[in-house]
Design goal:
Layout lengths: L5 E6 L2 E5 L9 E5 L17 H5 L5 E4 L7 E4 L7 E5 L2 E2 L20 E8 L12 E7 L9 E11 L4 E11 L3 E12 L19 E15 L2 E15 L7 E17 L5 E19 L9 E21 L2 E21 L8 E23 L4 E16 L2 H7 L9 E17 L2 E12 L3 H5 L3 E3 L4 E4 L7 E13 L3 E21 L11 E25 L2 E14 L3 E2 L7 E10 L2 E10 L16 E14 L2 E10 L21 E9 L1
Parallel strand pairs: 6-9, 24-27
Antiparallel strand pairs: 1-2, 2-3, 3-8, 4-5, 6-7, 8-9, 10-11, 10-34, 11-12, 12-13, 13-14, 14-15, 15-16, 16-17, 17-18, 18-19, 19-20, 20-21, 21-22, 22-25, 23-24, 25-26, 26-27, 27-28, 28-29, 28-30, 30-31, 31-32, 32-33, 33-34
């Protein structure tokens, strides 16, 4: 029972979709993920990483600490300020250094799209400032007749000798469907671009990863169904050249059970959907393979989440409405053991996340009203209860060294309100939105204990006395579309009060050897962030399409504080030819130099310019298809590094890739 999707193509990998059966258009940005079961000809690198597809959105850029598990920044803000879910499930990282973002536990071969909501339009499953990203997995759904199929695929990338193997299987009939997907990736160190007289190998950038995903649905009767899902993901020997430590293990088990009931009613399409879920994450950092380490250490972390949501949605006359009640309990625990070189000296141990239980329950309501075929209004609001509780007595005692009056539990109220108006006039669509909301500090911001940030080389200490961070956000978008041309411009502004940011504290000595000092999370009176993006599609001739997109971010806080990790002007241009079973594309991309924040250890990176090319051919073998894709990235082997490359690690040099997909 897949929900209907009315969509309008704006650029190759971005689709702007509208609410389920409305005539008025509520803007959601959706990144279509290429996988071997669909979109196999349109995308030039079907077996590429999910990270590269998310990066195609003008709202997202990715922080790289290595060649694996990039952290998505939404609207210029790190993951503390956004809500990232998989099919609506809340999942929290187990690594204090953010080496395991939620996006690292899925593969593009089992995803269909990533739904992106900006600001307070993304509060369905919790409080947020930046917005939300929901990674939606592929489902065959029920079919009037029996239908089965799948794919087998293999890929290779020359730069880091990455090997990709896997398969998908799917079956559906009137009462049952199942989708099973397996992917294996294995890569050596990658090479940066050419520099005369210098080695190009980027040490500690290897990784090995296995991912298994399964979804099964059973129709009880015409109006009721059950769906169960499982993700098992395991990465080993993962190197992080941007950090002083690697990961020997990153493992996730994510399971859910969902009940859907289409209620017979005068309300059109009234659907009640309820899901319970559980996930457990284990992440083990170690430096045992690093040479010349002053003091070896292990830093394991664990995250366990139990949660649910129940949602009611439907249509009545000129309205589409939805109500979502959701909740979760997360436990985050991380520790560090340091081993002195002298074996007679005792080991040193501390909790870096002091066994923190986070409980949340919230109600979110949305109503999309169509006043006419050209004018619509969305109103959305939510209220949530958020509580942190330190379960470890030793962890509580450690934090009480800095905060003597600290209690083990703290409860907060989270609020959100958002309104958006859309107006269609001939070939133009205009949209304006305004929202207000807040979010609670993350576990690291509130309770982190001596977390080393290598970007500025300071130990970070949390502050449980932080107030909620609040925001007022504005967004405006305009789209012009004809049969040949589509142009979309979008601006999003955030005014954030009590902005949480680490500040240097001279009174405290660092724990990490060689660290410059200690920073404690404090709050600026205010901060402002501006995001702007534009997309263009032009159908030049039959079979020829020219696409271009550009985006820019600016962030500044109280006292002219330059906010860190703000994307400079970035652009990409594609020229694509597609005819019958052939496809070819040439593209260029680049950026200006960044506006760096010296306070947070950033250096100014010069602008860059690289070129890419791709070819694809679809062979028909009876009822089967064989898809061959070839391409080259960074064609001229340019050496470059960008603002979001942790510790200034260079990007990958010339990379020739091949994807072979057999679809049956």
């Amino acid at each position: 029972m897949a929900d209907p999707l009315s969509a309008q193509q704006y650029k190759d990998s971005l689709v702007v979709s509208f609410s389920d059966t409305l005539k008025t258009k509520k803007l959601d940005e959706v990144v279509i993920i290429a996988n071997p079961s669909s979109n196999y000809l349109r995308e030039n690198k079907a077996l590429g990483s999910l990270d590269s597809y998310l990066e195609s959105s003008s709202s997202i850029n990715m922080i790289r600490r290595g060649a694996y598990a990039w952290e998505p920044m939404l609207n210029g803000m790190a993951t503390e300020r956004s809500v990232v879910t998989i099919d609506g499930m809340r999942i929290f990282q187990a690594c204090t250094d953010k080496m395991d973002p939620v996006t690292s536990y899925v593969e593009n071969t089992n995803l269909s799209r990533a739904k992106i909501n900006d600001g307070q339009s993304g509060t369905e499953f919790g409080g947020t400032i930046a917005g939300s990203i929901d990674l939606m997995r592929r489902k065959s759904g029920f079919n009037s007749g029996r239908k089965s199929g799948g794919s087998a695929f293999v890929g290779f990338e020359s730069n880091n000798k990455q090997q990709i193997y896997g398969s998908t299987l799917n079956y559906s009939d009137k009462r049952f469907f199942t989708d099973i997907d397996f992917t294996h990736r294995e890569a050596d160190n990658y090479r940066a671009g050419f520099r005369k007289g210098q080695s190009s190998e980027v040490n500690f950038s290897q990784f090995t990863k296995n991912n298994l995903s399964a979804i099964t649905g059973f129709k009880i009767n015409e109006n009721q169904e059950l769906q169960g899902s499982l993700i098992y993901d395991k990465a080993t020997d993962v190197g992080y050249p941007g950090l002083p430590m690697d990961a020997s293990l990153a493992k996730a088990t994510i399971a859910s059970l969902e009940y859907r009931y289409r209620i017979p009613s005068k309300y059109e399409g009234l659907l009640w959907e309820t899901k319970i879920y559980f996930n457990t994450i284990t992440h083990v950092m170690d430096d045992s393979h690093r040479p010349s380490v002053p003091m070896h250490m292990d830093m394991p972390g664990w995250s366990k989440t139990k949660g649910f949501y129940t949602k009611l949605k439907g249509n009545y006359k000129n309205q589409t409405f939805s109500t979502t009640l959701s909740g979760y309990k997360n436990n985050s625990l991380a520790e560090m053991t340091m081993y002195p070189e002298n074996p007679r000296e005792p080991e040193m141990f501390m909790l870096t996340w002091p066994d923190v239980n986070t409980m949340y329950s919230g109600l979110n309501v949305a109503d999309n009203i169509s006043f006419s075929s050209s004018l619509g209004l969305l109103v959305q609001g939510g209220l949530g209860m958020h509580q942190n509780k330190i379960a470890s007595e030793s962890g509580l005692n450690s934090l009480q060294l800095f905060y003597p009056k600290l209690k083990s539990a703290k409860t907060r109220m989270l609020r959100s309100l958002y309104s958006e108006i859309s107006y269609q006039h001939k070939k133009f669509l205009y949209q304006f939105g305004i929202g207000y909301g807040d979010r609670a500090p993350s576990v690291s911001e509130g309770y982190g204990f001596y977390l080393l940030n290598v970007n500025d080389n300071y130990d970070y200490v949390g502050n449980p006395d932080l107030k909620n961070e609040e925001t007022i956000n504005f967004n405006a978008a305009a789209t012009f579309e004809t049969a040949k041309v589509s142009v979309k411009g979008k601006v999003t502004c955030f005014y954030i009060t009590d902005y949480i940011i680490p500040k240097k504290n001279e009174r405290i000595s660092p724990m990490s050897m060689g660290a410059n000092g200690v920073k404690i999370y404090e709050q600026l009176n205010h901060a402002s962030i501006l995001n702007a993006g534009m997309n263009l599609d032009y159908k030049m001739f039959t079979n020829w399409i020219f696409s271009a997109n550009a985006s820019y971010r600016y962030g500044e806080g109280t006292g002219n504080t330059i906010l860190p990790l703000m994307q400079p002007f970035v652009y990409k241009m594609n020229l694509r030819f597609a005819r019958k079973s052939y496809f070819a594309e040439a593209s260029v991309e680049g950026s200006s130099k960044n506006r760096n924040s010296i306070e947070f250890g950033e250096t100014q990176k010069p602008g860059y310019f690289i070129a890419n090319a791709a070819l694809s051919k679809n062979f028909v073998l009876g009822n089967q298809k064989l898809i061959l894709k070839l391409g080259v990235e960074n064609l001229f082997d340019r050496y470059y590094s960008t603002f979001d490359d942790w510790s200034g690690i260079p990007r990958m040099g010339r990379n020739i890739y091949s994807n072979l997909i057999f679809k049956f």
